[in-house]
């Protein structure tokens, strides 16, 4: 896993879990290391400031690789209370946004 120099990994346990999943999926399906561009960041919106979200870079993946990685991460994390958003067309640069925002009985732990 690679981190950009400004990444703050003072995050909640649910995000450490999701980082591990994302890293493993990316290594398997894209044969590239996960590059985290934003985790706990007071300058971003959403759940980043609370340590409940991270962004992973996609600009180094081919379209097919990125789509496969996204589908697999969604398949694993979304039933556990995560939102996984494709932001490859974002003005901030192409990335996937992952946040832990459980609804109802969704939990990343048993």
Task: Characterise the protein shown here.
By secondary structure, the chain is of the alpha+beta class. The protein has a single domain, classed as Muramoyl-pentapeptide Carboxypeptidase, domain 2, CATH 3.30.1380. Helix content is 29%, strand content 21%. The protein has a five-stranded mixed sheet with strand order 1-2-3-5-4, with helices on one face. Helix 1 runs antiparallel to helix 2.
Q: How are the strands of the biggest sheet laid out side by side?
A: 1-2-3-5-4
Q: Return the string of H and E elements.
A: EHEEHEE
Give the CA-based shape. globular
Are there runs of 5+ residues with pLDDT below 50, and where? none
CATH topology type: Muramoyl-pentapeptide Carboxypeptidase, domain 2
User: What's the CATH architecture name?
Assistant: 2-Layer Sandwich
Short description:
With 110 residues, the chain is an alpha+beta fold.
List the main descriptive attributes of the protein structure presented here.
Muramoyl-pentapeptide Carboxypeptidase, domain 2, 5-stranded mixed beta sheet, 2 helices
Break the fold down into its secondary structure elements and pairings:
Layout: E1 2-3, H1 13-29, E2 35-38, E3 53-57, H2 63-77, E4 82-87, E5 95-100
Parallel strand pairs: 1-2
Antiparallel strand pairs: 2-3, 3-5, 4-5
Helix pairs in contact: 1-2
